[in-house]
Amino acid sequence: MCACVFNRTITRSSLDTLHPRVFSKNPNLRYINLSKNPMLKTLSWQVFEHLQHIELHMEEVVFSCGCEIRWLQLWQQRGKAGLSSQQLTCSTGDTEIRLLDMNVTNCGTNRHFRELLENRIKSNKVYLMQLYAPNPLD
């Protein structure tokens, strides 16, 4: 018998960040509602990378405009995860705009993605070094 979790709702909280692997132990998640979390300003695509056929709800979350949420803009443009019908917004200082209207440069450049990849490789190397390092007490 499966003790599977299919829905997760975290709304009206002081949530300000989600660890990239927060849902990794719940691969069967199909619905995630993060709406109305005023402290949540950015969100990594890595939170959702292992989930398939997911529906996200993020109404009334004002993200910080920038490359960190460019993936979310692309998902909304492509109609992924049920985002196309939502009014997602981001802010630059005091100005709030529709996420679809966000115009950021250098997010799609090879330099930006190379830096992201290098950072991920470095963090994986550190993890592997810790995992496979000889025990000094042996």
TrEMBL record:
Signal peptide region: none
SUPFAM superfamilies with a match to the protein in the record: L domain-like (SSF52058)
Source organism superkingdom: Eukaryota
Pfam families listed in its UniProt record: LRR_8 (PF13855), LRRCT_2 (PF16920)
InterPro entries recorded: Leu-rich_rpt, LRR_dom_sf, NTRK_LRRCT
Domain Growth factor receptor NTRK leucine rich repeat C-terminal: 65-108
Name the record gives this protein: Growth factor receptor NTRK leucine rich repeat C-terminal domain-containing protein
Organism: Xenoophorus captivus
